[in-house]
Structures are given as C-alpha cells and as structure tokens.
Amino acid sequence: MFDAIGTPSLPAPWVTLTRMVTTEPDWTRWPRPRPTAAEQRTDRLVALVVLAGAMIVIVLVNSVGAFAFGAAPSLVEQLLWGAALSLPLAVRRRYPLAVVIVVSVAFIVAQWRQLGDNTTPSVALFLAVYTVGAWERNRVVARWSRAGVILVMCAWLGVAFYEAFRGPRPDFSDAAGPLDPFVAALMLNLVINIVYFVTAYLFGNMAWLSARRQAELEYRAAQLRRSQEQNTRGAIVAERLRIARDLHDVVAHHVSVMGVQAGAARRVLDKDPDLAREALRTVEETARSAIGELRGLLGVLRAEDAEPVETTHGASPGLEQLDELVTNARAAGLEVTHGVYGEPRPVPESVALSAYRVVQEALTNVVKHAGARNAEVRVRYLDNALEVEVTDDGRGPLGAGAGGFGLVGMRERVAVHGGELDAGPRRDIGYRVRANLPALDQRVES
C-alpha cells in the first residue's frame, strides 16, 4: 500500500514486487491510504457540525411552520431523523460505501416521512456521495455505487413528480414567465438535482485524482532522493578506491625498492662498503620520493573542493618518468630494458598517469614476487591507443596478483578509460602484463 503521505510502504505486495523489478507502479490501480487519525477527527467534527445544523434548522422550521413538504411528523421524530442523517458522517472516510448507503436510505425515508427540513439532509447526502468518489479504494465499486445512488434518487424524484401531477396544483398567481408555472417548477427542481449530483460525482473524482497525483509526486521525489543518495555513495566508494589505488601504487613500489636495496646493503656491508653505500643512497632517494608523493596525495585529500592544490612533488607522473622506474628496478638488481615503439605523441594526462601506474605496479611485483633476472618495458603508440607491456623471465604468476590488490588496482585504472588489461603467464617462462588504453592523437584533435 501507500503510506499516509502517499509514498509506498513495504507491506503492500504489489509495491514490494515493483521495487524488486524496479518498474514504475501502476498508478491507475493506486490504493489510497486509509484516513489518518487527524482526518478521522475532522470527520467527527464535520458530523457534529452537520448534526448541530440539522437540530437548529429543524427547530426553526417547526417554530415558523414552514415545512418543506407541507406537513411534518413530531419534533422528536424529526430530530431523530436529523441525527440518523448526520452521525454516519463521522466515519465517512473509513467506511465510505457503508455511509453512502445508510445516508441514502435515511434520506429517502426521511422525505417519505415528510421531514420538515430538506436542506441538511441534502448536505449530508452530498458529502456521502462525494466521499465515495474521493476515498473508496475500489474504483469500480466507487463508480457503480454512486451511479446506483443517483439512479435511486432519480427514481425517487420521479415518484415525487408523479405525486405532484396527481395532487392539487399550487397557487401560481404571481407567475409571469412564458412557461407553464407547474412545468417550470418541475424543470427547476430537475436542474437543481442534476447539478447537485453531477457536482458531488465530479468533485469526488477530482479529489481522488488530486490525492493520486500528490502521491505520485512524493513517490518520484523519494525516488530522486534515493538516486541522489546512491550517486553520493557511489562517488564516495569511487573516491575511496582511487585513494586506495594511489596509496598502494606509491607505497608498494617505493617500499619494495627500499626493502630490496636495504637487504642488498646488509649483505655487502662488510665485503663491499662502496656498494652498500650506493644501495643506502638509493634507499634514501626512494624514501624522499615516497614522502613527496604521499604529501601530495594528502594535500589533495585535505584540500577543499574549490581550493587549488599545491603539492610538493610537482605534476602527476607520466610517460616521461618511466625511465626513473626502470632505473629504480635496475638498482634493485633487475636487468630491465625499455623500448618505445611508434611515433611518440602527447596523450591525455590521466591516460599517461594510468600507464605509469601500471608499469610501476608491474615492475614492483616483478621485484617482490617473480624472482626474475630480466624484464622488459615496452611502450607502443598505436593509431588510437597507447599500449604498455611489462614482461619478465621469473617464475610467475605474480604473487600480488594471487592475493593482493596489484592486479585489481591495475584493472580498475585501465577500466576507467575503457581500456583492456591482459595479465598472465607467458608460453615459455615468466609473466606478462599488457594494458591497452584508448588515447586519441591530441595533435589531430587540436
């Protein structure tokens, strides 16, 4: 069902199913929610107001003697009929169909008994017919029940016309119109009744449609809020993944190089102090580079959205810094060759950064896990893409790819650009990582 403000609540089976298949609800079958406690208090207040009006009008009519039908039962009976017509309105929105039936029957019987007042019963009947149109959840029942009440009232009006034809004619001595006064009186009565019932019918439909439109607007507003929340959560998750990738790339590579160099320095410290000193110098430089990149990353995280970020490590690394990666890998004891194929050209900065990180991660994994002696880094400039490839002669597969975040981070970086990553053992020996990144020639675009 829909809750008190028109938005869907979980208990309704069709709404739950709608949410499961993520389709738009069938608003033609919208079940209006039950009246709230405040609305039911309003109904009771309306019933008391109508009852008070009926009592007052009945007393005045009887005091004046201006009865609607020329005669009337006792005052006590008239007051009881006024109560019978008014009090059911206290539950008109909870039980609209039952109320319209009770009020319609009481209306006909009260007229048959020639109740002195006809105004208050007409108000009660109008509210009952209107409420069925506005609140009855079964729209087929709402339509045909009102049609039935109107037909019965028309039949009762026909009986009244028939009795009027049979009875004595009223005195129309003051009539001055072109029509027969008696016929004109009947036509006036007919027009008033048509306007009365059509208005009650149409107003009920309008109230139902208005409530349904309000529920639909609130439903779509809730959908929009949920969509915005999902987008926000997705953006947060994407940012966390980006930060995790950057931290992994910066920390893993530099710490790996520092660990290898520190181990080499420890082994040759007594035998070859110069070589140990060179290894420690590499550790020092790598540590400084890692600190610089970490400071830059922390600066990005701490900066406000509208503030420019001033980093201490310069621009983001790109293809020009691949030589540094190769040099660091060589310093770690790995024989690395670096080749560039095709005509070098500018590529988007984000693509260059992703290519750099892929090579960085691949070389880090070779140094840490592959047990390789040789590796090769190839950069290929294709027509509409940039391809980077790292191969080695180690034992493969890369240990980080089996249980760490290395390959996952590489795949995520490549996927951002709509590229492809191929990582796996080579046919003969070793391992290969190849990334294909779409990168249009910027010189042609400009």
Automatic annotation (TrEMBL):
It is an enzyme of class 2 (transferase). InterPro entries: DUF7134 (IPR055558), HATPase_C_sf (IPR036890), HATPase_dom (IPR003594), Sensor_HK_TwoCompSys (IPR050482), Sig_transdc_His_kin_sub3_dim/P (IPR011712). Coiled coil: none annotated. GO terms for molecular function: ATP binding; phosphorelay sensor kinase activity; protein dimerization activity. GO terms for cellular component: membrane. SUPFAM superfamilies: ATPase domain of HSP90 chaperone/DNA topoisomerase II/histidine kinase. The keyword Cell membrane does not apply. This is histidine kinase. It comes from Actinophytocola oryzae.
